[in-house]
Design brief:
heterodimer; A: 291 residues; mainly alpha; ABC transporter involved in vitamin B12 uptake, BtuC; globular; B: 383 residues; two-stranded antiparallel ribbon; two-stranded antiparallel sheet; 4 strands; transmembrane helix (chain A)
Chain lengths: 291, 383
């Protein structure tokens, strides 16, 4: 029983990691109906920025964290301006390919600048564990869980309660109509990329003690976070976190109870089954198309 | 400009609309036939890869380009074809039999993937095919009694009618070329048949196709099966060309490469698959060339513009360092993909059509002829 609970808790912690990255996917999708395949790579780049500020320049952890988030928000806007804005309005597949290209580019440029080694960021909570009874939980994992919950709540409120959030939802549904209603669509899209890059950076820095930072970390984790976002129903913020936690729990349970090899495949099998039964994900909204 | 006068439906669906096509494709074929005697063995080997990638590209084109179903899982189909060949070869099954078996098995698997894919569109379909590819990769790594797991499998030299066909020889090149040409002709025939018309109708509007009486489910599954089968055939050749296969060769990276093939070539015509394959395969020799010659060329240019020998030497060193940096290939891939999506969405074949039209209509060519329409009311959620 204790094993089960321990696996459950570490699964949830892992799932929050996926959820945190998946939030970025969902954000961009929710606001612009664009699927950003470079989300994991934005996270990786954010991690490297933070490593440069904290590890190489010796800044204070929180200061470096903030610096990285701001730098990446600007980078997100730049990426949107250069790569995404010219092709807004074209079929979704073009944009998917463009972001895949962006991901390739970021990965190899980072590899050229920082090298291909693993890097670690010293954090205030990188060691020490929380003990509840005989249950053990590391602080760095707790920090990820806390950050996921806070960010998820903040973004949920942002999208549902603020004017800017409403403007984002409007421009996702019909850019032209939103533009006619006086919403500055271009600026909205730009802001959403900035927010998504900032969220990705937060994920990257928080993950640094757990997964380390290397140029492929974004690809590896992004490929797990992506099913999480799909499982929750692309476009639902709580869905992303629930999907992430589900994938995390399934992965850690499969790693513990099933023979070797199932750990990596189980999330995908579950994903396929869910997609078969509910093609729009668990929390997705499905509307009929008018001809 | 040539005006074709069509009097019959048969004229409209001819493979060669007029004699110019026969001449130009004849010249191309003649060049391809003498290629092994003219080109270096390295280039011929690259040409074999072009043939294999182009065959996969044609397969993917049927699914993505003509039926409108995106797939990032084609590496898995290639893997199934390759492993079928490697497995059957152990029991001395002759090449023609396991070649067809590879295609057939992959086709069946493709149909099985097609059924669940029926309900999915857009991004959900992409992630479903990625998941499928991951599962296949893991199965290949774990099913050790058949696939030898991560150790991989050695593929013996191909033997055709008792003759050994080494993977570097001209005969193997001719074999791959023949498979490619047969695939292309077969696909062209498919596309002008009712089945192909149904595929295109589904791509353009599923709802409209359904209301015209097209059985959308049936044709989507057919498209998956045919696309997978062609990829499986290419997989058999791929296994022989590499003479060693292991699960980590058939990753998402490879699937993305296949998508790049049709994206760069132009995802609306079979020419695109071939052009894209040429581009993707020839990028390697091009990068080698960059590494070897570019520093010298740039330093030479600098010297002619008055840089002294020390500066020129520095420039030489810097350019050499950049050109031989690790991972340069990835960066170039990335930039190329982005540039094509932004500026040449119709791909290389689209560029060729534009140039051709420019000269046909000279001086009346309008750039807007090829302009894509932007649709801002796109919400794919409402589909």
């Amino acid at each position: 029983m204790l094993d089960f609970v321990q696996q459950l808790v570490s699964g949830i912690a892992l799932g929050c990691v996926y959820g945190l990255i998946a939030l970025g996917f969902v954000l961009i999708y929710k606001a612009t109906e664009v699927v950003n395949f470079a989300q994991g790579d934005l996270m990786m780049l954010g991690g490297f920025f933070a490593f440069t500020f904290i590890g190489m320049l010796g800044l204070n952890y929180w200061l470096g964290f903030a610096g990285a988030v701001i730098a990446m928000a600007l980078f997100g806007m730049l990426a949107e301006r250069v790569v995404v804005r010219p092709i807004l309005g074209y079929p979704q597949f073009s944009i998917i390919m463009a972001t895949i290209g962006l991901g390739y580019f970021l990965r190899s440029v980072v590899g050229m600048i920082w090298g291909t080694d693993d890097f670690k960021i010293e954090t205030p909570f990188s060691d020490g564990v929380l003990r509840i009874g005989s249950l053990v939980l590391a602080y760095d994992k707790l920090s990820v869980i806390a950050a996921t919950i806070i960010l998820c709540a903040l973004l949920y409120l942002f999208f549902n309660r603020t004017t800017l959030g409403t403007a984002m939802r409007a421009s996702s549904e019909n850019m032209l109509a939103a533009y006619y209603m006086g919403i500055p669509v271009k600026r909205v899209v730009s802001i959403v990329w900035a927010i998504a890059a900032a969220v990705a950076t937060a994920a990257g820095v928080l993950l640094a003690p757990i997964t380390f930072i290397h140029s492929n970390v974004g690809l590896v984790l992004g490929l797990k976070a992506f099913p999480a976002a799909v499982l929750g129903g692309f476009g639902s913020i709580p869905g992303a976190v629930v999907g992430g936690v589900l994938i995390g729990v399934i992965e850690s349970m499969a790693g513990f109870y099933l023979p070797q090899g199932w750990k990596d495949v189980a999330p995908y099998i579950v994903l396929l089954v869910v997609l078969l039964l509910k093609p729009e994900g668990l929390f997705g909204v499905h509307m009929r198309k008018k001809v | 400009m040539r005006f074709l006068f069509k009097t019959d439906y048969e004229d409209d669906i001819k493979l060669f609309p007029h004699s110019g096509y026969v001449v130009s494709y004849g010249i191309l074929l003649a060049f391809l036939l003498i290629a092994p005697f003219v080109l270096s063995s390295y280039l011929v080997s690259q040409l074999v890869f072009v043939c294999i990638y182009a065959t996969v590209g044609v397969g993917l084109m049927i699914l993505t380009g003509f039926t409108g179903q995106a797939s990032l899982g084609h590496a898995a189909f290639l893997a199934i074809g390759a492993y079928t060949a490697a497995y059957l070869q152990q029991f001395n099954v002759p090449f023609p039999v396991y070649f067809l078996a590879g295609g057939l098995l992959t086709g069946v698997v493709g149909a099985l993937v097609g059924f669940p894919a029926l309900r999915l569109t857009g991004i959900y379909l992409v992630i479903a095919t990625i998941s499928f590819a991951f599962i296949v990769e893991e199965v290949l790594a774990r099913w050790e009694s058949v696939t030898h797991g991560n150790e991989g499998m050695r593929v013996k030299t191909l033997s055709l009618f008792g003759q050994a066909v080494p993977q570097n020889g001209p005969t193997f090149y001719y074999l791959c070329l023949a498979v490619l040409i047969l695939t292309i002709v077969g696909t062209l025939n498919l596309l002008r048949s009712p089945t192909g018309r149904a595929f295109v109708a589904i791509r353009d509007s599923e709802t409209a196709a359904r209301s015209m009486g097209v059985n959308v489910s049936l044709y989507k599954v057919k498209s998956f099966a045919i696309s997978a089968a062609i990829t499986g055939l290419a997989g058999v050749l791929f296994a022989h060309k590499l003479s060693f296969i292991s699960p980590e060769m058939f990753t998402l990276q490879l699937s993305i490469e296949f998508i790049i093939v049709i994206l760069i070539g132009g995802a609306f015509s079979l020419h695109g698959a071939v052009l894209g394959a040429i581009f993707l395969v020839m990028i390697d020799p091009f990068l080698t060339y960059l590494k070897d010659d570019l520093p010298g060329i740039i330093a030479g240019i600098a010297a002619t513009f008055g840089a002294d020998s020390i500066t020129a030497g520095k420039i030489h060193g810097n350019v050499a360092a950049i050109a031989s940096a690790n991972g340069l290939k990835g960066a170039i891939y990335g930039v190329i993909i982005v540039l094509f999506v932004l500026f040449e969405p119709l791909g290389l074949y689209g560029r060729w059509l534009k140039i051709k039209l420019f000269f046909q209509l000279f001086p009346l060519y309008k750039r807007a002829t090829f302009k894509r329409q932007k649709i801002y009311v796109k919400s794919e959620r409402n589909r």
